[in-house]
Write a structure and sequence with these properties.
binds iron/sulfur cluster; about 25% helix; two-stranded antiparallel sheet; alpha+beta; two-stranded antiparallel ribbon
Length: about 150
Amino acid sequence: MPLPPDHPDRPKFVSRAAKVPLKAIVNLGACTGCEVCIQVCPIPGCIDKFGEDPSNFGVFVNYDVCIGCRLCAKDCPWDTIRMVPTPSVAGHQTSLDSQPNHEHAVFQRPELVPEEIRTFVEKLPFTDPTAAPLFNKQNPQVPNLMGPK
Ligand code: SF4
Ligand code: SF4
């Protein structure tokens, strides 16, 4: 979970995270849930798992406190994390919002993923023929998920 609002270090991390040029995005489809990234991330509460569910649903990054240090991307044993320009995830609260689709099993678990995130992609007006190209332009991190670092 994100740092609690009353955590004494939270204002410091949020202030720093608001100015960084890069954010980390996890490719949920390839994440094994090994938690190496959680161990190396210097910001408490930045990378989190989906509760204590015994199923492996991977991890996600909280963008309000991610300082873009790249340690997680560097150390992920499964090469599952990419650093993307902060503007490309503008308006996204977590790396869940930034998934290229919501086919991952976790999106079928309303108790784990809030409604506003589960419906993030579906809410986009893809019936408008101009919407999909615009979405892709605003989310250049999507092809990066499978591309080279
Ligand atoms: S280190 Fe990589 S594979 Fe392991 S939990 Fe983090 S993102 Fe997933
Ligand atoms: S880039 Fe740094 S601060 Fe952001 S999730 Fe990765 S290890 Fe944590």
